[in-house]
Every structure is written in C-alpha cells, then in structure tokens.
Design goal:
Helix 11 (278-290) runs antiparallel to helix 12 (296-320), helix 13 packs across helix 14 and helix 18 (454-465) packs across helix 21 (488-503). The protein has three domains: 13-123, 3-Layer(aba) Sandwich (Rossmann fold), CATH 3.40.50; 132-191 and 244-320, Serine Threonine Protein Phosphatase 5, Tetratricopeptide repeat (Alpha Horseshoe), CATH 1.25.40; 338-503, DNA Cyclobutane Dipyrimidine Photolyase, subunit A, domain 3, CATH 1.10.579. The longest helix is centred in the middle third of the chain and has 25 residues, at 296-320. It has helices at 32-35, 41-60, 79-90, 103-116, 132-139, 147-158, 201-213, 230-243, 245-248, 268-272, 278-290, 296-320, 348-360, 365-379, 383-393, 399-410, 427-433, 454-465, 467-471, 477-483, 488-503, and strands spanning 24-28, 64-68, 95-98, 120-123. The relative contact order is 0.10. Strand 3 (95-98), helix 4 and strand 4 (120-123) form a beta-alpha-beta unit. Strands 1-2 form a two-stranded parallel sheet. Strands 3-4 form a two-stranded parallel ribbon. It has 515 residues and is mostly helical. Flavin-adenine dinucleotide (FAD) binds at residues 264-268, 271-272, 305-306, 309-310, 313, 364-365, 368-369, 373, 390, 394, 396-397, 401-402, 405-406, 409-410.
C-alpha cells in the first residue's frame, strides 16, 4: 500500500481492508520531490517530519512499514525508482493507493506500476467533501464556473450553516461586505500568537538533515514550529477557534508589518498533509457559532474558505489538468525577479511578505494574492515561473491547491476560469489594507517619478498593455475607463518607467549613494 507525503491519514480509503498479517505500507523520502521545484527548507522539513511521525504511529499499531529515508545509500531519489526497488524486494501481488494530489506524481506511479506489470488500484480521496466525479457533474453543461454557485451547492449538500428550513443561516450565503476590515492607524487589536509546536527529537533530526542536505535551498528553519501529527493539528484547530476565529472574518484581508499570523488559522498545511480532516474543522467552526462564541460573518467566511474555495480549486485542478499547467492567457513572458528568493528589495510590502515566507513558509491569502502575486502579474512574469515559486516556498503547497490559485486566481493565466477578472490594483490597495506604505520610500499615489510606487506604475502599464483584451470584460469597465483619462505624455512616462523597472531586474534601480 503506497502512502505519499501528503496522504498521512490513517483513515484513508487505502486502509480499507488492510490486513496487518499480509499487507505492508510503502513510504519513500526522495530528493526529486524537493528539487523538481527549488523547495524551501521549511516545506521539505514539514513533509519529512510529518512522514516520519506517521511511520512511527503506524509501526506502533503493529503495521509493517517499508520506509526509505533520504539518507539510504541505495535510494534512487525518485518515487518511480523507489517503487521499482521495493517491488523487487517485497514482491507484492498488487498495489493500492489513494489518488495522488499531483498530476505529475499520479502519472509517474501509474506508469511505473504498468511497467512493473503490477495492478495498481487507485481509490478515491475521502478527505475531500466533493469527489472529482461530483465536480465534473457540477461543471457539466455550465458555460462558466463560479465558486459562489459551487459553494451554495456544497452548503446545501453537506448541511453547513443552514436554518431549520434549509435556508442559509442569517438569510444570506455570503457576508463578505462585513469581512473587509483593515486595522486603520491603530494597528491590530491585541492578540495572542498561535500555539507553537517546538520540534521533538524526530523533527530535530529532520531539521538537521534538511539543513545539511539542502543547504543551498531557500528559507531557513530556525522558527520551525508546525504541527506534524494529528493530535498537534487538533490542538492548532482548537487554539484557532478559541482565539482567532471570532475576528477572522473582519480582518481576513488586513496586513501589518511583522505580523505574519494575525487572525488566520494556519491550518492549511495540516489539512493538506491530511493530518486534519476538513469536516472536523467545519463542524468546530459551526459549533462555535451555534454556541454564540463566534459571529456569523466570521464563521461563514471561514467555512467558505474550506467548503468553498478549497474544494473548488481541487475540482478545477483535476478538471483542467494537464493542459492547465501550460496556460498563459495574457502571454506573460518576464523572468521572476531574483529577489523573490531572498526578499532583498526596497518595496516594504514585498520585503515583509517575502521575508516571512522564507522564514516561516507562510503568508496569508492577501499577501499571496495582492502583494507577491499582484506584483508578478503587473510586472508580466510568465505564470509558470510564478507557479514554480509558490510551489517551492509555502509549507502548504501541493500542486492541486497551489496551481489554480497561482496560475488562475492570481495571474489570470487561465483567462477567467478561476477569477472573472484579473486581480489588479495600484499600491493604494496595499496602503488601505496595511501599514507598509508608511515604512516605504515609494508613494502609492504616484505612477511616475523616482518615488513612484512600482505597483502603481506597473498597474497602469498592465492596463495599457492589455487594454484591448480587458475592454471586453464588463467587470474591468471602470478601470479601463479610468485609463482613458491618461494623456499621451503620462502614458509615455508610465511605459518608460515600467520598461526601466523590467530592465533593472523587476524593481526600480536603487538610488546611488555617493561616498
Ligand atoms: P486561513 O486564512 O485561515 O484560511 C482557512 C483555510 O481555508 C486555509 O487553511 C485553507 O485550507 C482554506 N483556503 C482559504 N483560501 C483558499 C484558497 N484560495 N484555495 C484553497 N484553500 C483555501 N493554499 C494552500 O493550501 N496551498 C497553496 O499552495 C496555496 N497557494 C496559494 C497561492 C496563491 C497565489 C494564492 C493567492 C493562494 C494560495 N493558497 C494556497 C490559498 C490560501 O492563501 C492559503 O490556503 C492560506 O493562506 C493558508 O493559510 P491559513 O491556513 O492561515 O488560512
Ligand atoms: Fe508597497 Fe508601494 Fe506601499 Fe511601498 S508604496 S509598501 S511598494 S504598495
């Protein structure tokens, strides 16, 4: 029975009918999974630490686990290679696994099983509330897919936040209007940091291994404190529901310097590795609302992320792969700026978001969408390069969830499948939602001049470059109309500055200091 690094669920369908007397688990740590994109140290460490804890838990149950470590001298360092080696040694009659979370891995394992002449039974992933077939049925016959309709269907089907008549609790499906708060000048209200999980002996061993073996990879491990077992993930959930969920909705879009967690759950990695069942998360949220501990807008906003967005992006991924990976609707062709891998740039918002990403393997949704994602979009970076960065740097990155969010939602590379319009804005959006601009040498109101905010320059440049395409999109009408107000001289100056930014590696040339 094959267990991949993001399938650490002892209740998964792969275990149905598992007979400890005859069956064995197979797990392999392989370097190629950390190098096919330049994975950050926190991401590699989290996967390996969680896998090793799962191995121990299974062995404690008396199950045979054939586990290949990264350091094993005979390790071929690919999943297909390790499967072939294990089959030669263990001579199984058949292989069983749950659907992989990554099209590339599924293809490789299926091809290898076929080459080895072994039947491979791939079972549905019960972790998700919507099967791939159910999503296909939802998509069938629709001209356009929209998360909101999918989400309402899921609410009805699974009975979350409904009143006695089956209508949405509070009379509406969506309370987004109440969920767009910023912190104003005062900053975030007092809040405790999330519960931390200091590395135990197994994790410490992994951290040392990753530091040594992947020394040149981005990110660092000093702050590693992610939950790596189901009981830890459960504690993380309880901590979130008690301390941060009540204000999750109101502040879910807000940012503040040096405040990576704010009121977010930081549960994505635990769920994506399958240490935590989304149903448990959804029920805990609804329960907190019914007990009057959490306002409806916060509970609904959070449930929408998990029952709506999370399930929806998985549906999109499997519906459109493998061609989705190749999409580039806006013909973007720039390289990713080298400083995305270091955070060494003058833009305060980007420095903060990239810095914490490398330090922690984490940034919240608006940092990913409206800071790092927005900048790559308006700069015109090729979506494949952006995808490779996101897949590498976040601890929760698995392709089924990362790719539609990056290529689709944030880069509009799918031309409107994930989002009905590109998420483009000037630096004023970041100014409204954070304190970054007060700590930055650039001015978000300016599009030209030495102190012009690069987001603002590139926003107008993006609209000019794509005016023809965007003019046909109703939802962009206002933005395109505003573009019409720019005179030829202003347009030329914006273009010139945008070209200079690109020529200088994706950021305005730094001011020279004369000694
Ligand atoms: P919270 O803000 O507390 O949200 C709660 C949960 O809702 C998350 O844990 C997550 O499971 C789910 N969720 C929220 N938004 C989304 C979404 N858009 N898609 C899927 N699930 C969602 N999420 C990943 O899990 N892995 C990724 O690799 C990933 N890459 C992203 C790349 C980009 C460019 C963008 C814009 C978003 C990406 N997301 C990804 C979605 C989202 O940003 C993260 O799930 C979230 O920031 C994780 O932090 P949290 O657990 O504190 O989330
Ligand atoms: Fe970011 Fe522009 Fe604000 Fe600087 S001025 S923090 S670059 S949005």
């Amino acid at each position: 029975m094959l267990v991949l690094g993001d399938q650490l669920d002892a209740e998964s369908a792969a275990f149905d009918g598992f007979d400890a007397a005859h069956d064995a688990l197979w797990m392999a740590e392989v370097a190629s999974e950390s190098t096919h994109v330049w994975s950050s140290k926190p991401r590699i460490a989290l996967f390996l630490a969680a896998m090793r804890h799962f191995r121990e838990a299974q062995r404690a149950l008396g199950r045979r686990v054939h586990y290949v470590t990264l350091e094993d001298a005979a390790n071929t360092q690919t999943l297909a290679g390790e499967l072939a080696r294990a089959v030669a040694e263990l001579r199984p009659a058949r292989l069983v696994m749950v659907e992989a979370g990554d099209w590339r891995v599924a293809e490789a394992l299926e091809a290898q099983a076929a080459a080895l002449g072994l039947p491979l039974e791939v079972r549905g992933d019960r972790h998700f509330l919507c099967t791939r077939e159910e999503f296909r049925a939802h998509a069938r016959g629709r001209k356009q897919l929209r998360m909101e309709f999918f989400y309402r269907e899921m609410r009805r089907r699974h009975g979350f936040l409904l009143d006695a008549d089956g209508a949405p609790e509070g009379g509406a499906w969506n309370f987004d209007e109440e969920n767009r708060g910023s912190f104003g000048k005062a900053g975030p209200p007092p809040h405790a940091p999330p519960v931390a999980f200091p590395p135990d002996a197994i994790t410490r061993e992994v951290l040392a291994l990753v530091d040594a073996r992947f020394a040149g990879h981005p990110g660092d491990l000093a702050a590693f404190d992610w939950p790596v077992t189901p009981p830890e993930a459960q504690r993380a959930l309880e901590d979130f529901v008690t301390h941060r969920l009540p204000r999750f909705g109101l502040f879910q879009d807000a940012m503040w310097h040096d405040e990576p967690w704010l009121f977010h759950s930081r549960l994505s990695a635990a769920m994506n590795l399958k240490l935590l069942d989304p149903r448990v998360v959804l029920h805990a949220t609804e329960r907190a609302f019914r007990q009057g501990r959490v306002p409806l807008a916060a509970a609904e906003g959070f449930i929408r992320q998990i029952l709506g967005w999370r399930e929806y992006v998985r549906g999109i991924y499997w519906h459109f792969m493998p061609r989705y990976l190749e999409l580039n609707a806006m013909a973007a062709a720039e390289a990713l700026p080298a400083w995305y891998w270091t955070g060494d740039c003058e833009m305060a918002c980007l420095r903060d978001a990239i810095g914490q990403t490398l330090r922690l393997g984490y940034a919240h949704h608006i940092q990913r969408l409206m800071v790092t994602g927005l900048y790559a979009l308006v700069l015109g970076v090729h979506p494949r390069r952006v995808h490779e960065w996101y897949l590498a740097v976040y601890v929760d990155a698995v392709e089924w969830v990362e790719l539609p969010n990056t290529l689709g939602m944030s880069q509009y590379g799918d031309g409107g499948v994930m989002a009905s319009k590109p998420y483009v804005a000037t630096g004023k959006y970041i100014q409204r939602m954070s304190d970054h601009c007060t700590r930055c040498r650039f001015d978000p109101a300016k599009a030209t001049g030495d102190d012009a905010c690069p987001f603002t320059t590139l926003y107008w440049d993006y609209l000019m470059r794509h005016e023809g395409t965007l003019a046909g999109n109703q939802r962009m009408a206002l933005q395109v109309r505003n573009l019409g107000r720019l005179g030829p001289a202003e347009r030329a100056a914006i273009s010139q500055r945008a070209t200079a930014i690109r020529a200088a590696g994706g950021a305005p040339p730094r001011a020279l200091t004369l000694l």
